[in-house]
């Protein structure tokens, strides 16, 4: 599968804890977050819902966007999410991952 640079935002719940990341393999990276393969912030706070993602033509553009979003105020991030995803739906099933179980895993 061809790599596709992407910036993504995960949430623990609507209006919950947010995580912004960058990857060239969104499905693979989401799998890592959801299974806790890599311990850290997202596994500690159960941040598993994909609420926004943006695809880029190159990794440089994706990294610049990630850095920009990380500097934003929390409300700006919430507004960005709600502009395209007003109900904070988990977008992972739309890109091929199974839905999260009710326990969030």
From TrEMBL:
Residues in GIY-YIG domain copies: 3-80
UniProt-listed Pfam families: GIY-YIG
InterPro entries according to UniProt: GIY-YIG_endonuc (IPR000305), GIY-YIG_endonuc_sf (IPR035901), UPF0213_domain (IPR050190)
Alphabetical list of SUPFAM superfamilies matching this protein: GIY-YIG endonuclease (SSF82771)
The entry assigns this protein to a family as follows: Belongs to the UPF0213 family.
The name this protein carries in UniProt is Excinuclease ABC, C subunit-like
Could you tell me which species this protein originates from?
Sphingobium indicum BiD32
